[in-house]
């Protein structure tokens, strides 16, 4: 196990990135609640919190790092709640609410891919597992969100959702294996994930929602 | 960590409340299976058990208290199974099955809010976390139930579902911080949660089920 | 705790059975993604992996055995991914894709029922819990799969899904209590579970999909 959580700039940067990803996903989850399901303020903030904290909690469970940091640390809870409330308050003023939902999701995806992979490495995971766990941290919250509002999850229906997350995680893991834990690599990985995700959204018509499964004749 | 699980009347009362909440949620989950999804006896008992045990298991995972007490302790498994079987046997005789579903859900909500918060405190959680964990214990089983029968979960769609649970948990946590762990406070918190929930149900037309999300044009 | 994982043929056989179950569920999950939801290759492999690994991960969480073996051991990840890719490649050549889905699911169900129960016993679980955990390992992956593609889970809607799994687990646990951990009992239990499941499929018209719950008038 190579502990890289040393006091100082590096871990502060990691925390800031993780809180930024939490905030982005809270905005995304809350706006999804407003847009897709017409929920009230409690529902909006709740879905925002689940989307914001779900990925990190799932990663910590898989790593056996309980209680999960994203649940125990008041800063994550505060940022997640704040994101939900802010999104609720501003939702009516957003002209392009669908675009906002997509952009915040992509931001969260990129940030969590790198912070999730870094945390996995810090807790002793191997390279392959850290890439996978970075991907899981990135897509986990959004998957919970999609299930709760009864959508087929983006991670299944959209080709460039898991892939950009894994790419971002890969950048961090490769850099770590080459001996560098500089924050610049995390930023690069997050930017790569975000860019690939948004390119996928931009160049494709959104992946068609699969027809609801209703006991098709031969199934 | 302030251990308050002392042998004697206090912990027996806590266990009774927790088993009562388990039983209420088992009845609720089983009746939901009968009413909403026309499931057979295995499905009815299974959904009853998931609803009855889900919240406590989720709370214990988040607290890192594994294996979860509600899964290891045979009394919980017995009560959950019994509730499912009883509900299945009596379901045809219930004139007001929908009201029963709602009442049992509210009973379970109130009881689990206080027992969940108390258990979180016993395991060393801070005040804010204990309130949140009491809320999660209360709404967790019902949320799993709703997802499995493909509903938007009550915790998102109904304004007075999470709030009464958090209020009940708050009573227990405030009492604890003021130095009292008397069972009377747990009963008061559970009653408050139950009452607020039922008032919400009574004064509002049930929150409209959000229209199913089917790839709306601009999403 | 009675450790029975002794080096040698017994544990190799257990590993082979567990990997075989993983492979069967990966094929099943991937084919479900192709058939039910028309997903792309990433979605197909992802759903295959979730179906293949989900039951074991859930069991290990409930046992407190973290990180879960099925997530940490690269052989499980490899087999799960391979199953997904193979299913994707061959899906167009399968005439009877629905039958294949059902058969692979039944194979995974039977194998995981026995390996899950055996692992629970190895980690010190009591007899009743090991039967329950074998059942959970067997139905867990399929339940996650069903929720993600928005179906009512087989474990709720199909009478002979949980029951065959519990029967298979019971064979292993009874044999263990009578002093035998011979692989023959695992094979017998898996065969029993598979047979009962397929008989249930064969003799019944598939359990009718419950009508979608859409805010029925009196609910």
TrEMBL record, chains A, B, C:
Membrane topology classification: Multi-pass membrane protein
Domain (Glycine transporter): residue spans on this chain: 16-91, 103-175
TM ranges: 12-34, 41-62, 74-90, 97-118, 130-148, 160-178, 184-205
Main location per the UniProt record: membrane
Keywords, in A-Z order: Cell membrane, Membrane, Transmembrane, Transmembrane helix
Entry annotated with the keyword Mitochondrion: no
Subcellular location, record wording: Cell membrane
UniProt superkingdom: Bacteria
InterPro entries: Gly_transporter
Cited PANTHER family: INNER MEMBRANE PROTEIN, UPF0126 INNER MEMBRANE PROTEIN YADS-RELATED
Family statement: Belongs to the UPF0126 family.
Protein name in UniProt: Trimeric intracellular cation channel family protein
Organism: Actinomycetospora lemnae
């Amino acid at each position: 196990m190579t502990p890289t959580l040393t006091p100082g700039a590096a871990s502060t940067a990691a925390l800031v990135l993780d809180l930024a990803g939490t905030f982005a996903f809270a905005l995304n989850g809350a706006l999804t609640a407003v847009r897709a399901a017409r929920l009230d303020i409690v529902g909006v903030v709740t879905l925002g919190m689940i989307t914001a904290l779900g990925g990190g909690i799932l990663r910590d469970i898989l790593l056996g790092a309980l209680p999960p940091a994203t649940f125990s640390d008041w800063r994550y809870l505060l940022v997640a709640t704040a994101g939900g409330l802010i999104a609720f308050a501003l939702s009516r003023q957003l002209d392009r609410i669908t675009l906002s939902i997509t952009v915040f999701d992509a931001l969260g995806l990129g940030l969590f891919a790198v912070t999730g992979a870094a945390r996995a490495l810090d807790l002793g995971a191997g390279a392959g597992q850290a890439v996978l766990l970075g991907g899981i941290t990135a897509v986990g919250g959004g998957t919970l969100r999609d299930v709760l509002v009864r959508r087929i999850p983006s991670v299944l229906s959209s080709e460039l959702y898991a892939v950009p997350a894994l790419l971002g995680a890969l950048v961090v893991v490769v850099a770590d294996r080459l001996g560098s834990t500089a924050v610049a690599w995390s930023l690069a990985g997050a930017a790569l994930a975000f860019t690939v995700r948004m390119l996928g959204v931009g160049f494709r018509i959104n992946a068609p929602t699969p027809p609801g499964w209703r006991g098709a004749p031969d199934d």
